Amino acid sequence: MSGPAGEPSRRRLATLGAFAASVLLLSGCQGSPLELDSAPSEPGRPVTTTPPISVSFAPLRGMMIEAPLGHPALGVKIDNHEAARPQIALNRSDIVFEELVEGGITRYLAVWHSDVPEEVGPVRSIRPMDPDIATPFGGIIAYSGGQEHFVDMMRSTGLVNIVFDFDDTGLFHRADDRPGPHDVILAAQEAVARNSELAPPPVQFAYGSADPLAAPALAATPTSSIDLVFSDARFPVWEWDAAASVWLRWQEGEPDVESSGERVRATNVVTLRVGIDWSFGEVPRTIMVGSGEAWVSAGGRTAHGTWSKDAAGSPIVLTAADGSRLRLAPGNTWVELVPNEGSVTFQP
User: Fold this and answer.
1) Cα–Cα distance between 132 and 137 in angstroms, integer?
2) Which of 247, 216, 238 is nearest to 324 (CA)?
3) pLDDT tens, position by position, 33-62
4) Per-residue b or e along 210-225, where b marks 16 or more CB atoms closer than 10 Å to that residue's CB
5) How far apart are the first and last CA of the chain?
6) Range in 13-17, 269-273, 279-283 with the lowest mean pLDDT
7) How far does CA 345 lie from the centroid of its chain?
């Protein structure tokens, strides 16, 4: 747009952009709208006004948006068996946790809020660490089932549980083009719509600029790839794509691709070293309440620090070596819960 008719619109966008940059530095932002007025006129010039700009915050992506997201978050347990790939709509999630399960393989607990797809999957059963991961988001948790005591643990969280094994809602179906049991698909949009009265999720992480690790005090190092080893069976790699400003994912030496045909990607990769509790026999439980070593990778850099989580319902807090908050870039995030027995390597 050019000429006088475009000036108010450009002024509004410029004001919004400047405001967004400052708001992203506040880790306590919630989803309520913020209103901006046009900048004051210069002395001696006629006073003009423009309608206020209503601005909201996407709490799980750290981004400014046009309208508040009044619906709840949807957490879903997603299969990562080779037969379950490619998964559906991982790139539209806000936050994904990768965790070790029995047999040395991994599963995901993915959370959608800012962009809920029509369908997600394949959906699988929960594990004992999932209540501690899902509870801080509130809202809905969906899974295919699980051992009775694990299901009881999840139901005691107060989250709305949508469970395939007990489902009479029609929210799940089995995909004809996928092998069982890696074929359970959830109608994600419908699941959220049926629970629209639930509150939106609170902010989980602190956010900064698109290059949040640039401050010299953070001592962030240039990073071309992140090599993670969960076990002999699972060793994902994240590779920095400078042209697209994203991390691209590999699994067991192959490009990781979702069902849309896109490479699985993330704006932020948060790597946590975690202990494993083997009190459930062959089912490992990632210890989520406690603290440990952490790294945040964003903008092609990695900063070292620590993570802490003081209760099942509390979010993870990321702290830099200098005691400041480790901030993420606005966008989607993968949280890699790498066992202490595994390994983490950052390539320059």
Assistant:
1) 10
2) 216
3) 333 333 333 444 444 444 444 568 999 999
4) eebbeeeebebeebeb
5) 43
6) 13-17
7) 22
Task: Examine the pLDDT at 318 and tell me if it is beyond 60.
Answer: yes
pTM over 0.85: yes
